[in-house]
């Protein structure tokens, strides 16, 4: 599903955030990306949905090489990739339903399909009863659930999550992880999650890729966090 081959990323200030990355992630895998601050995790994640472009190398997502993709083609490829951010990025003047539906409206999905699919994913994340509320009327955990629903509404094969529990309390974080687990297990969606949450990584075991200095220093099935917080 995802393949990086000899990927380098050097920023204009001279910082090397990716120093020859090689990795394969299979369909249906759940992968944590861990490492100290400034290690290159965010760059690793952002290159997977072409928020950042590698200096050299190849990055394939579902068979498309993002490294050679023309800028005008990026929005079409992103329709196959769901992205969940730490700060939710919801549209404040739209209701829960409208925020999720918007992702389908931009690809001009039929109105009947939008209604049925949005209802389905809101039910999956436990927010069907709050579809008419605005983001400001929701808790942080509920806003993140809306963000997750929006990320999967177009049935992406991959969901990229960048610190999705970073702004949430521990109890709420566990609830969000249960949502990701259901998406992975019930829908078969590949999930790649950058996180600093040691407890979650150590208790909900999945593959762990550790990055330091732009290098993959550890890649373990059912690994542990491995860093002090």
Q: Which secondary structure elements does this structure contain, and how are they paired or packed?
A:
Elements: E1 2-10, E2 16-25, E3 30-34, H1 41-48, E4 56-61, E5 64-65, H2 74-78, E6 81-84, H3 96-105, H4 111-124, H5 140-152, E7 158-162, H6 170-187, E8 190-194, H7 198-203, E9 207-212, E10 215-220
Parallel strand pairs: 3-8, 3-9, 6-7, 7-8
Antiparallel strand pairs: 1-2, 1-4, 4-5, 9-10
Helix pairs in contact: 3-4, 3-5, 4-5, 5-6
InterPro entries: AAA+_ATPase, ABC_transporter-like_ATP-bd, ABC_transporter-like_CS, ABC_transpr_LolD-like, Cell_div_FtsE, P-loop_NTPase
GO molecular function: ATP binding; ATP hydrolysis activity; transmembrane transporter activity
Domain ABC transporter: 2-229
Gap from first CA to last CA? 31 Å
Secondary-structure element order, as H and E? EEEHEEHEHHHEHEHEE
Portion in strands? 25-35%
Number of domains: 2
Oligomer, anyone? Answer: single chain
Task: Report the count of strand segments.
Answer: 10
User: Which class best fits the helix and strand makeup?
Assistant: alpha/beta
Reading off the top of the CATH hierarchy, the class of the largest domain is best stated as Alpha Beta
Q: Indicate the percent of residues in helices.
A: 25-40%
Using the alpha-carbon principal axes, give the shape: globular
Radius of gyration, in angstroms, nearest whole number = 17 Å
Task: Name the average pLDDT.
Answer: 94
Largest sheet report: 6 strands, mixed
According to CATH, the homologous superfamily of the largest domain is P-loop containing nucleotide triphosphate hydrolases
Query: Taking strands numbered 1, 2, ... along the chain, how are they ordered across the largest sheet?
Result: 6-7-8-3-9-10
Named at the architecture level, the CATH assignment of the largest domain is 3-Layer(aba) Sandwich
InterPro entries: AAA+_ATPase, ABC_transporter-like_ATP-bd, ABC_transporter-like_CS, ABC_transpr_LolD-like, Cell_div_FtsE, P-loop_NTPase
Membrane topology: Peripheral membrane protein
Protein name: Cell division ATP-binding protein FtsE
Family: Belongs to the ABC transporter superfamily.
């Amino acid at each position: 599903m995802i393949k990086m081959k000899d990927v380098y990323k050097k920023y204009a200030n001279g910082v090397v955030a990716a120093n020859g990355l090689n990795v394969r992630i299979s369909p249906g895998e759940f992968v944590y990306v861990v490492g100290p601050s400034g290690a290159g995790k965010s760059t690793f994640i952002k290159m997977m949905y072409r928020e950042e472009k590698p200096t050299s190398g190849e990055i394939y997502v579902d068979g498309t090489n993002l490294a050679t993709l023309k800028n005008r083609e990026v929005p079409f490829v992103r329709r196959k990739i769901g992205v969940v951010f730490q700060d939710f990025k919801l549209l404040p003047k739209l209701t829960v339903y409208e925020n999720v539906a918007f992702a389908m409206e931009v690809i001009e999905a039929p109105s009947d399909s939008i209604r049925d699919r949005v209802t389905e994913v809101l039910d999956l994340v436990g927010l069907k009863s709050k579809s008419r509320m605005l983001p400001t009327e929701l808790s942080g955990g509920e806003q993140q659930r809306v963000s997750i629903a929006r990320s999967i509404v177009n049935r992406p094969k991959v969901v990229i999550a960048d610190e999705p529990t970073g702004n949430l309390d521990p109890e709420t974080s566990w609830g969000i992880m249960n949502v990701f687990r259901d998406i992975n297990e019930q829908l078969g969606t590949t999930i790649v999650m950058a996180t600093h949450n040691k407890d979650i990584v150590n208790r909900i075991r999945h593959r762990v890729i550790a990055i330091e200095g732009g290098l993959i220093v550890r890649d373990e099935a059912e690994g542990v966090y491995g860093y002090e917080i």
